[in-house]
């Protein structure tokens, strides 16, 4: 059970950092551990991974080399401009609602908003909250389907 929970934590963090896979796949660990524990550990991993991405992005975008690249590359400038406008206008609640889409691989959205935004804690909490809602909805849907079929 401990190994399953540890791997679930790593998968949750990995979906925020590098894995472009749906977060709901972490529910596969329910076979080895209680559902509530799997969901809590997966959400904790998602929060830690998102916070790491946002924290590093805040540090990286202050580097002179990154600022020079952004100033010279028109695609980077357009993408960053879009991200900044989106963050300034909608903020962390918009990230929460964007990440509520079931099966949505949210790694790209997390990276874009990490570089454009400057509030790691707010955006990490929004990422984790959306992940928890998605897990609960998928779990209840699977549970309901198994109850209907039996």
> Helix and strand succession?
HHHHHH
Number of domains: 1
User: In percent, how much strand structure appears in the residues?
Assistant: under 5%
- The low-pLDDT segments are none
CA-based shape: elongated
Number of strands: 0
Radius of gyration: 17 Å
Quick check: average pLDDT? Answer: 82
Strand count, sense and barrel status of the largest sheet are: none
Distance between the termini: 27 Å
* Helical content class: over 70%
Number of separate helices: 6
Can you walk me through this structure?
There is one protein chain. The chain is mainly alpha-helical and 150 residues long. The protein has one domain (2-149). 77% of the residues lie in helices and 0% in strands. The protein has helices at 2-17, 35-60, 64-72, 74-98, 107-116, 120-149. Helix 2 runs antiparallel to helix 6 and helix 4 packs across helix 5. The radius of gyration is 17 Å and the shape is elongated.
Summarize the structure.
By secondary structure, this protein is mainly alpha-helical. It is 77% helix and 0% strand. It contains six helices and no strands.
List the helices and strands and how they pair.
Blueprint: H1 2-17, H2 35-60, H3 64-72, H4 74-98, H5 107-116, H6 120-149
């Amino acid at each position: 059970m401990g190994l399953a929970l540890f791997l679930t934590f790593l998968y949750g963090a990995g979906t925020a950092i590098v894995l472009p896979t749906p977060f709901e796949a972490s529910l596969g660990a329910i076979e080895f551990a209680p559902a509530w524990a799997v969901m809590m550990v997966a959400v904790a991993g998602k929060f830690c991974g998102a916070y790491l991405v946002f924290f590093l992005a805040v540090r990286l975008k202050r580097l002179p080399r990154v600022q020079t690249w952004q100033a010279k590359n028109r695609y980077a400038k357009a993408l960053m401009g879009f991200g900044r406008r989106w963050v300034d206008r909608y903020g962390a609640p918009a990230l929460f609602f964007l990440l509520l889409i079931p099966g949505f691989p949210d790694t790209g959205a997390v990276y874009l908003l990490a570089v454009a935004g400057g509030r790691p804690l707010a955006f990490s909490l929004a990422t984790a909250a959306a992940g928890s809602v998605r897990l609960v909805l998928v779990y209840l849907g699977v549970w309901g389907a198994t109850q209907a079929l039996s």
